[in-house]
Structure prediction request, 142 residues.
Amino acid sequence: MVELSRWQELVPLFIAAAWCHGPAAPFLPATFEPVVMAYGQSHTPLVVALSAAIISVVMEAVNYLGYGYVLRSKRLGRVRTASARLSALFQRRPFLTCLLVAATPIPDWSARILGAIARYSTSRYLAAFLLGRTASFWLLAR
Prediction:
């Protein structure tokens, strides 16, 4: 596998993943992909992809649960009403939708908001994002 010193070199990748996929993510579009590409030059693409995907999915869990809490408040009832049609479309194939959003440049917040409003399973949401981001990050790191 990889030596401990090589893992220590990935600490900045973990920090960048946490920052770029944390609550500030909507304000930082496409900032993490160049970091993954740079790390792919000096590390095994699979290690980079898995490391980046795991940290980003941990941050995605924080975001998803936070968005769910906020979007279910009584004050935002109009948002839920206004997005009823989109939520219905999302609920047709929620796993596939999340997987495609995670694997492509489509903004993550779109699936995050729809999933939270539709009360989609957190574990399935995160599994879709883990699969999609691992594939996406692996392609970028190659």
Q: What stands out?
A: DSSP finds nine helices and no strands in the chain.
